[in-house]
Specification:
- The chain is of the alpha/beta class.
- It folds into 3 domains: 62 residues, Nucleic acid-binding proteins (OB fold (Dihydrolipoamide Acetyltransferase, E2P)), CATH 2.40.50; 192 residues, Vaccinia Virus protein VP39 (Rossmann fold, 3-Layer(aba) Sandwich); 148 residues, Beta Barrel (OB fold (Dihydrolipoamide Acetyltransferase, E2P)).
- The chain contains 12 helices and 21 strands.
- The protein has a 7-stranded mixed β-sheet with strand order 8-7-6-9-10-11-12. A 7-stranded mixed β-sheet has the order 17-16-15-18-19-21-20, with helices on both faces. The protein has a 5-stranded mixed barrel with strand order 1-2-3-5-4.
- α10 packs parallel to α11.
- It is flat.
- The protein starts with 12 loop residues before the first helix and ends with a strand.
Length: 523
């Protein structure tokens, strides 16, 4: 799932595992914060701080290639041959058998790099000079690629990106399951890896008297204008640019994070890829949206594609985009979207996959893995707004979705009604509690589907799945590392992995989705 979908944080597992890979024998192979910090785990979160005597040693910027990895200090220059791409899009190589993570480096490149962090198990460094360039290196299409942080791989050819992501999946399985024979299929990429994102959640700021929409550079308060973002749907870019001009014309005060003054914090736009209809939400730091009536009038006059205008209130100092209160200013509360034959009704806060084209391919892999004949009971254990459950419902005897967020369950029920999915029902609760209750009552699922947050499945759910003994488990993952870790638990519980299908849902980024078919071993 995307980094927006669930609230679990994604860990930088390459760094966590680096200490176990210092022998140099490398195995083969989206709720994004509006501050743009998702999937940006810092090394300080992954390793204990070194003692002050080690942590604050004098920089030796002139030093080149210390004799031992243990002698390396911050500021030293080292030469590294990059082996692969890491889970956050960084280049991964080794210096004297110690793992080195270098932002912007590509496989097969020889890099002269300045060390920025020296930890017992790994180093981080930044490129000073490319002594040998990769043939996969290209000029990024975006002018703010280096500062925005929303993409991590625009400097790599798309063919290279696909190869690297497939390798991430293979390497994760090998590392965490201790098996080199997991059947990983060739990754499914996009024909055109641009303009695919159907939703933008952007900060609003002023610069030189102009109102702009964009993101904050990762880990900073520096605003980056992303007008014309090449991975956003063109309709989103057009709407955002027009809305910025309207907000400027009306003099709506922009919220300032430092002074805590102003009103408008963010603008969120979603486009229905089937209809072209746009849903627009203005997020303020207080109860009021100044000049709301004029704002609505000008949006309606200049943007006929906008069918819904809402106002969300988020007073909290939080990375979460939305607050709890949303009021419709004009139009329908929801816009219609269609995914194959599944009809969806999306409120401003409802989750929907950001790349519908690739979602169809991912869900087709889910359908293949489920191998339904029309008689099976399917349980979707992290059902969200019901898209996977509804995708499978026409082919199953019964589908039950479980979701902890009550609003999402209501959306799922509404979507089931729109789609005429009489065989689907949705239940509020935790799957690790409801699934065992159903099994004890004599209802044992034939197929279980999980699509968890980046942190993976709750261990109690894995235990419940093992106890339920479904014929098939379909695991949809947005984090290869937690997928592989959970598979290791399931393998020990008597399951086997039939195949894994990577899907590139987010070209130009380091993210990769995967659908894995897991079955019970013969007893």
């Amino acid at each position: 799932m995307t980094s927006e979908k669930k609230h679990g944080a994604g860990g930088s597992t390459d760094r966590k595992a680096a200490g176990n890979r210092n022998n140099g024998n490398e195995k083969k192979n989206t709720n994004r914060s509006y501050k743009n910090t998702a999937n940006k785990d810092t090394a300080s979160n992954l390793r204990p701080d070194r003692p002050d005597s080690q942590k604050h040693r004098p920089k030796t910027a002139s030093a080149v290639s210390p004799a031992s990895a243990e002698d390396v200090r911050v500021g030293d220059t080292i030469v590294v041959t990059v082996k692969r791409i890491g889970i956050n899009g960084e280049g991964v190589g080794y210096y004297r058998r110690k793992a080195v993570f270098i932002k912007g480096a590509l496989p097969e490149e020889v890099v002269k790099a300045a060390v920025t962090k020296a930890e017992p198990g790994y180093l981080t460094a930044e490129i000073k000079q490319l002594e040998k360039k990769s043939p996969l290196r290209i000029q990024p299409a975006c002018s703010v690629y280096e500062t925005c942080g929303g993409c991590q791989l625009q400097h790599m050819s798309y063919e290279g990106q696909l190869r690297a992501k497939e390798e991430l999946v293979r390497e994760a399985f090998a590392r965490y399951t201790k098996r080199d024979n997991i059947p990983v299929r060739p990754i499914i990429g996009m024909d055109d890896p641009w303009g695919y994102r159907n939703k933008a959640q952007l900060q609003v700021a002023t610069r030189d008297g102009r109102v702009l929409t964009g993101l904050y550079e990762a880990g900073t308060h520096r605003f980056v204008d992303i007008t014309g973002c090449p991975i956003q749907h063109p309709g989103i870019n057009s709407v955002m640019q027009t809305v910025s001009g309207i907000v400027q014309k009306l003099g709506i005060p922009i919220y300032n994070e430092r002074t805590k003054r102003g009103a408008l914090r963010m603008v969120v736009a979603r486009v229905g890829t089937e209809s072209g209809d746009v849903q627009l939400t203005f997020i303020t730091a207080g109860n009021e949206l100044p000049n709301a009536d004029k704002l609505v009038a000008l949006v309606r006059e200049t943007l006929p594609s906008v069918k819904s205008i809402a106002h969300n209130i988020n007073r909290e100092n939080t990375p979460l985009v939305f607050g709890e209160t949303t009021n419709v200013l004009w139009g329908d509360e929801r816009i219609r979207e269609k995914l194959g034959d599944v009809e969806l009704s999306l409120s401003p806060r409802a989750f929907f996959q950001l790349n519908p084209q690739q979602t169809l391919r991912l869900y087709d892999a889910v359908k293949e893995a489920a191998a339904l004949t029309g008689r099976e009971l399917v349980v979707d254990a992290y059902c969200g707004t019901g898209t996977i459950a509804l995708w499978l419902a026409p082919f199953a005897g019964e589908v039950r979705g479980i979701e902890v967020i009550a609003d999402a369950v209501e959306d799922a029920r509404r979507n089931a009604e729109l789609s005429g999915a009489s065989r689907a029902s949705f239940h509020t609760g935790r799957a690790e509690q409801l699934l065992p209750e159903w099994v004890r009552a004599g209802t044992r699922p034939d197929v279980i589907v999980v699509d968890p947050p980046r942190t993976g499945c709750d261990r109690k759910l894995l235990d419940a799945i093992a106890a339920a003994k479904p014929k098939r488990l379909v695991y949809v993952s947005c984090n290869p590392s937690t997928l592989a870790k959970d598979c290791a638990v399931l393998l020990d519980a008597g399951f086997r992995i039939e195949w894994a299908q990577p899907v590139d849902m987010f070209p130009q980024t380091s993210h990769v989705e995967c659908c894995a078919l897991i079955v019970r071993s013969k007893e």
